[in-house]
Every structure is written in structure tokens, then in C-alpha cells.
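Q: Sequence in, structure out?
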Amino acid sequence: MAKGYSVFVGLAIVAALCVAAWFFAPKGENQTTWRSSLILAFISCYLMWFITFMAQLHPLIEPRRSNIREGFQHE
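A: Exactly. Output:
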């Protein structure tokens, strides 16, 4: 099972990719657009992975509802 430090390893990888996108973006009039698009894409993918990973690392275990009818309640 993955440990909690995987979050920091992933963050370091994404930070390296963002730095690479900053320096290796194609030169020209659209350089700012390329940089912004790549960095936003990397950060968005990381945030999606991070949220999913944390939800699986600390899941809610059998949430209980209090407004269920008496005959249908899970015991």
C-alpha cells in the first residue's frame, strides 16, 4: 500500500515538470500561452490525483444516516 510520502514525491515531480515547461516552452509570440497552459495542466492533474489519493488513504468507513425508516436501517 502507498504511504503518505507519495504525495511529496508527486509534488516534487510536478514541480520539476513545471520548471521544465517554463524553460523549454517554444519561443515566439505564444510562449506565455504555452507556459501557462502546460503549468496549469500539470497542476490540475496533480490536484486531481492528490484529492483521489487522500480520499483513498483516509476513507469514510460505513457512514450512517439517521433519517432512514426503522425497518430499513442497517445494523
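Residues 53 and 72 are 33 Å apart (CA to CA).
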